[in-house]
Design goal:
Keywords: Disulfide bond, Hydrolase, Membrane, Protease, Signal-anchor, Transmembrane, Transmembrane helix. By secondary structure, this protein is of the alpha+beta class. It has helices at about 55-75, 95-105, 245-250, and strands spanning about 5-10, 20-25, 30-35, 40, 85-90, 110-120, 120-135, 145-150, 180, 190, 190-195, 205-210, 215-225, 235-240. Helix content is about 15%, strand content about 30%.
Length: about 250
């Protein structure tokens, strides 16, 4: 359901939108031209069936927009050329933008993985071969907030690039474990310096902890949070052990 002030766009049919007629002086015949256009508008009302052509809301808004277009042309120099306009559908602009964003996020050609303690320049850089997003993930929900990416080529371990192990599904992390989160997000939120917490832009970053043998394990993945490091506003992570079976099914690891 669209919320207040949702951005919507309306689309006019090629055959019915703006028809222009002109007289060909040499041939003495009329020609009709049809134009197709997509225009955006903002609605301050709630329309739960805005996209259903036979609905009352669709009809009501279509008539308003068609009347507005007609009046606009009748006040212009093209008033004797205009025939009619016709709305064929409405689409929520936010939904459309979300679908486009999801397509971009899943395109491995648009991503580069950097390794090491610095980004500018990175110690090691790799392209991505493929990105697999959990099939049950549905934006804007945070459920199943996990994906895996396959690198275009292996990364060697160095003094600056170390491995993080995947825990077994039965591995237990304890409340007194010391954990570290890594990311490249903002360091400040509304001029307040941030400390030991995830921050804006860290989504997807690793939450890691060492065991008694100093072997590091991936306990969580930064998912979301309300603000950055604020009191009584805990950060939320995807629990890796809960998705260990899914990771293995997609990667064989």
């Amino acid at each position: 359901m669209p919320s207040n002030s949702d951005n919507w766009e309306y689309v006019l049919t090629p055959s019915d939108m703006f028809e222009y007629r002109r007289v060909e002086e040499k041939l003495y015949q009329r020609k009709t031209y049809s134009y197709y256009s997509t225009l955006s508008f903002t609605s301050d009302k709630l329309y739960d069936d805005f996209e259903k052509e036979a609905s009352k809301n669709f009809t009501e808004m279509s008539q308003k927009i068609e009347s507005m277009v007609k009046n606009m042309f009748h006040k212009s120099s093209l008033r004797d050329k205009f025939v009619k306009s016709h709305i064929i559908r409405f689409r929520n602009q936010q939904d459309r933008n979300r679908r486009l964003s999801e397509q971009l996020y899943k395109d491995p050609a648009r991503w580069t993985a950097s390794f090491g303690v610095t980004l500018m320049p990175p110690k090691i850089e790799r392209g991505l071969r493929r990105i697999i997003v959990h099939e049950n993930y549905k934006y804007p929900s945070h459920d199943y907030d996990i994906s895996v990416a396959e690198l275009s080529s292996p990364v060697p371990y160095t003094n600056a690039v170390h491995r993080i192990c995947l825990p077994d599904a039965s591995y237990e992390f304890h409340p007194d474990n010391v954990m570290f989160v890594t990311g490249f997000g903002a360091l400040r939120n509304e001029s307040e310096h941030l400390g030991e917490s995830q921050v804006i832009g860290d989504s997807g970053g690793p939450l890691v902890t060492p065991d008694a043998r100093d072997t590091w394990y991936l306990a969580g993945i930064v998912s979301w949070g309300d603000g950055c490091g604020a009191p009584n506003k805990p950060s939320v992570y995807t629990r890796v052990t809960a998705f260990r079976g899914w990771i293995a099914s997609k990667t064989g690891v």
